[in-house]
Specification:
Chain lengths: 322, 317
């Protein structure tokens, strides 16, 4: 097992009687990495996260968090981990302030440290003014924010979140994503399960897609999206738009670049390129634009989006994406 | 920039922040601080404190305290004399106190059932276990922490009850034998511990937890089975002196405690009540060994606590 991994799951299997929820699953989250866990309903995402956070016992497999076996030493493994699993529920009589105090004491914060960190995390999730109100009176979205604050309280190195923006309005979703993105600067590792594909494409560098308890694909988000845009012949369509009109000489030079199979002029300032080269080759296309001083407006891979990737990999399942 | 100094000077309490424009540097907000986990015992005590806080906001605790405070009310309103049909002013202090404690055989089952039966099931039913069990604490710390909180509530209630009864007795009749009171109190607490541990352990197998079911088990089912066995001469010939051995069962701890003080008017003793219904059974609890009784209750309680821990550690969300 690699010591540079924040989360290292090997051969995770969880069965309930004759039903296998997770089947020999491997999952590796590097330190400082943000990984999205995608899959349709019933794919095994929550079971995987519950196994990692110690809420359920795996039937077999090993789970290391920061190199510590979480099944043999739950306390030590989760000492630098913050979790929000499924819809958070709290003791009804509790206020956010009391919840922070409870969680803080468990993590080892003293009274002053808890007060400082609680202020910081509650402000971050916009719940500071509600700190002394009973959580039982909160909406689902507000409880979601409090749960996230509780997870961030002890400055965790690893954060495990199960649909953290569920129940939030669009503004709330954006604010939570901003909060989570700010953690990248602090070299935190994140494993997030979500149905919202935009969250994965905006926040995560890597993604693991699971279905029927097994890993379907895993890897760099950009590369997987790029692969999803490829045609059967192994090429992608790139649309180039410029500010100035494209000259025939430019089109000829473009067509002569490495990796370019075909060019098709769509307008005076737009061209479609059928491309099957490397990233270096793709960068060379931009060089040609600048050489002709055409002022590049945009360069997009047609069909390269995470929705297409998700739909391709979960064919036959009922859609559960947003 | 928010005054971290201001907050630190004020001891880090929430109410120090009166303005709403929050900003803090990473250093001020301790965003890079690494914290050390406390010991399992400290975490257990944190759970105990958190559970006591929840109790203080619940009706169970207020109701139990109010019930205890009813005792002097019943005495001074003359209601107890009326109900018993007897002039209690002629009782000796021990018998008087034992009679005031006459409801103990009920409450020694009722209070543990009320306090303990839902502590664990509610964590799974209300899904608060998703929060608590995902924290870096062992399930054992959490299990024992909640149990300790429940026991502390019961110790408070029984201490209050004994205190009130001792005070009323000394005012009305005369002073009690302090040793007898302490012994009766110890039997009550240890018997209550055994019943609490049993209720707590059985609740780990239940989805919702039922105070009524568990109370009926201790107050009615177990004593009824005992009486029926004793009434059957075939069994009593084989087992011999079974009812003398019944004192070792935790549901009978209430009877043992009251008999330690004096001879109570056995209004609410399940042993006495059921024995009146069954022929060939004249049951009173005279031959008891309180020290041995407490030892058995303690072992009984510890065994059930371990059973409950075994089940809780394997229970899944």
């Amino acid at each position: 097992m690699d010591g540079q991994l924040a989360i290292d799951v090997a051969g995770l299997t969880k069965t309930y009687g004759t039903f296998t929820a997770v089947d020999n699953l491997d999952l590796k989250v590097k330190k400082g990495e943000f990984m999205g866990l995608l899959g349709p309903n019933g794919a095994g995402k929550s079971t995987t996260l519950k196994s990692v956070s110690g809420l359920i016992r795996p039937t077999s497999g090993q789970i290391l968090i920061n190199g510590i076996d979480s099944q043999k030493n739950h306390r030590k493994a989760l000492a630098r981990v913050g979790c929000v699993i499924e819809t958070p529920e709290f003791y009804r009589g509790y206020t956010p302030a009391e919840l922070m105090e409870y969680a803080g004491r468990i993590y080892g914060l003293n009274k002053t440290e808890t007060a400082i960190r609680a202020r910081d995390v509650l402000e971050e999730v916009k719940m500071w003014e509600w700190r002394n109100k009973p959580i039982g009176e909160f909406s689902k979205g507000m409880r979601q924010r409090v749960a996230l604050a509780q997870a961030l309280l002890p400055n965790p190195e690893v954060i495990i979140l199960d649909e953290p923006t569920s129940g939030l309005d669009p503004r709330g979703m954006i604010e939570i994503r901003q909060t989570l993105n700010s953690l990248k600067k602090r070299d935190r590792s994140l494993l997030i399960s979500t149905h919202i594909l935009k969250e994965v494409s905006e926040m995560c560098g890597t993604v693991t897609m699971i279905n029927h308890g097994k890993v379907v694909t895993t890897g760099d988000v950009a590369s997987l999206i790029h692969q999803s845009a490829m045609t059967d012949a192994g090429s992608v369509e790139i649309e180039l738009r410029t500010l100035k009109d494209m000259t025939p000489a430019f089109i000829t030079d473009l067509g002569g670049c490495a990796g370019v199979k075909n060019t098709e002029k769509m307008g005076s300032r737009e061209v479609k390129v059928v491309f099957s080269g490397t990233d270096e080759d793709q960068a060379s296309l931009v060089d040609v634009v600048y050489r002709y001083d055409l002022r590049l407006l945009g360069m997009t891979e047609k069909g390269a989006d995470i929705e297409k990737l998700y739909m391709n990999l979960t064919k036959g399942e009922k859609a559960s994406v947003q | 920039m928010i005054g971290r100094n201001k907050q630190a000077n004020a001891g880090g309490t929430f109410n120090d922040y009166s303005d709403t424009d929050y900003s803090a540097t990473d250093e001020e907000a301790h965003r890079s601080t690494e914290y050390q986990l406390p010991s399992s015992v400290n975490q257990m005590l944190t759970v105990t404190k958190a559970t006591l806080k929840l109790f203080s906001k619940s009706y169970t605790f207020i109701t139990l305290t109010a019930l205890v405070l009813l005792i002097p009310l019943l005495v001074y309103a003359g209601l107890l004399d009326f109900v018993l049909g007897d002039d209690m002013s002629v009782y000796d202090p021990g018998d008087y106190a034992a009679t005031l404690l006459g409801a103990l055989p009920v409450f020694i089952a009722l209070i543990p059932a009320a306090v303990m039966s839902k502590l664990i099931p509610s964590e799974f039913r209300d899904r608060t276990a998703y929060l608590s069990l995902a924290l870096p604490q062992s399930r054992a710390s959490f299990f024992f922490g909640k149990f300790l909180a429940g026991m502390l509530v019961q110790i408070f209630v029984f201490t209050l009850a004994y205190g009130v009864i001792a005070l009323v007795t000394s005012l009305e009749i005369g002073s009690l034998d302090g040793g007898a009171v302490l012994l009766a109190f110890a039997i009550t607490i240890i018997g209550g511990f055994a019943i609490s541990a049993t209720v707590y352990a059985l609740s780990t197998f239940m989805k919702k937890g039922s105070a009524l079911l568990l109370f009926l088990l201790f107050y009615m089912v177990i004593p009824a089975v005992m009486i029926l066995i004793d009434a059957n001469t075939v069994f009593s010939d084989i087992i011999g002196g079974f009812i003398d051995n019944a004192q070792y069962l935790p549901p009978i701890a209430g009877d043992v405690a009251t008999f330690t003080l004096g001879t109570p008017y056995e209004l609410m003793s399940p042993v006495y009540f059921y024995s009146m219904l069954v022929e060939n059974s004249g049951i009173t609890l005279f031959n008891y060994n309180s020290v041995l009784d407490m030892g058995v209750y303690a072992v009984w309680g510890a065994a059930f606590l371990l059973l409950g821990l075994y089940r809780f550690e394997r229970r899944e969300m």
